[in-house]
Amino acid sequence: MTITILLFFSVMGLFVDVIAGVDYPFNFYQIMDSLKLELFDVLVYAVNYSIYGYFFSYFILKWEMKRINLLLFIIIWSGITTLIEWISIKFHVFTYMNGWNIGFSSIAYMFIFTISALFIKLFSYLWGNVRSESMCLKGAHDENL
Predict the structure, then answer these.
(1) What is the pTM of this model?
(2) Which residues contact 30 (CB under 8 A, 6 or more apart)?
(3) Is the pLDDT of residue 127 over 90?
């Protein structure tokens, strides 16, 4: 399940940044140091987004969060992410364009982390079912021996 989570957040980060941030039709913000996708950019997506998402997932699964706690966690995680973006703006890592601002980013993070939490819960549920079925099949196989 870990690999699935890492890949999910890596692809999610790349997808959102390319669709909303740096490409037509939106082009709301500029990231990285070039308009072109470079090898270092891919490493940032593969490492930063996946590890950040991994910790997000870890806390959700470790603390077995349900509705209210999960909602509070998403709000807090979105706030932390917005703070990190604000710091990035101050260091000129992000440049907003076409009317985008940190308020829109905060709303986008709430949406993205809500969708991500739902996927994490779904992954966990499906992974648990696959493992349960695998154990049942193994037990049935052992009984036949």
Answers:
(1) 0.81
(2) 21, 22, 94, 95, 97
(3) no
